[in-house]
What does this fold into?
Amino acid sequence: MIAQMFNHYLTAKLVIAVNEVGLFQLFESNKVITPADLIEQYDFDLVGARDLLRFLASQRVLTRGPKGYQLDEAFKEEYEQNFGMLSWLLEGYGNVVAQSHPILTGEQRYGVDIVRNAKKMASATAQISAKNTDSFMFKLLDSLSFDHAIDIGCGSGMRLLQLAQHYPHVTMSGIDISEDCCELARENIHRHGIEKQINIVCSSAEDWSDNITETRAEHGRNLILCFAMFHDLLNIPGCAEQMLASIRQNYPKGTYFVIQDQMCAPEVRVTNQDWVEGFTFVHRLMGQSLYPLSTYQTTLEQAGFAVRETVSTSIPENYLILAELV
Ligand SMILES: C[S@@+](CC[C@H](N)C(=O)[O-])C[C@H]1O[C@@H](n2cnc3c(N)ncnc32)[C@H](O)[C@@H]1O
It folds into this structure.
């Protein structure tokens, strides 16, 4: 088991590094790569290039043929589907996990002594969603009619971009408490040249109603999204309730509210081989719990929202909830 960890750890670190420099793109279209290609395009030295390719082949990231190396088919499929998970853990939360010991002994505190890499975390979350939850989201949203969409905790802004492409007549607002994430979202939106359709407001979910005129359709129906962050609010006593009360005060009946989030695992689980235990532990390092689906349903209903539909996504214990202000 330790030998496996040794190799898995090194492979994971190298996959992140290789991805960062764009090396995986070199392997696209089943191209055969040799050490000479790495030397030419990435300035590697000969021994380094040869040993990197050789190690990645030993771990089945690559396959080695008579003319050089190709991306392993099984790895390629996994990489396309799940790279966001690895990036979330190693790039978003790498320094938090590395400090597990002082955090668990209380010597250091998340948010005070140690913080995550907000931009990397937000980009990785967007990648995870794109592969695992967005198709469920579009299926749900396509059945609704709305004129303005507000994404609370918009992170990288990638969801807003996708929504803007899918619903070109809908105006949109993104709200995020993190300056870094707002900057990243604005950069992503600027890159696509659709600033007119989407505005980003740096504010907390609890009191974004100060900016309410920028984030509400004057005529027509509003759709409010809260993706991969409702648990952040549930972890601060009264915070989710405060946000829902503010929505109730400022938005008309009929406003849609859609949550997507990672819930906790049931006490007894058949498997521990998926992501859920890891998600739970990393959140624990941040002093956070994950909650069962029933907590979401009760919180919404007590705040005057009717839960219309609950959909499970392709990540275990990850759900979409469609609610409506009544
Ligand atoms: C895990 S990320 C999810 C990003 C995006 N919703 C997605 O699904 O890709 C959570 C985001 O919520 C933001 N956030 C956390 N607490 C918040 C709060 N109280 N008010 C506004 N944004 C918050 C974080 O800054 C972060 O960008």
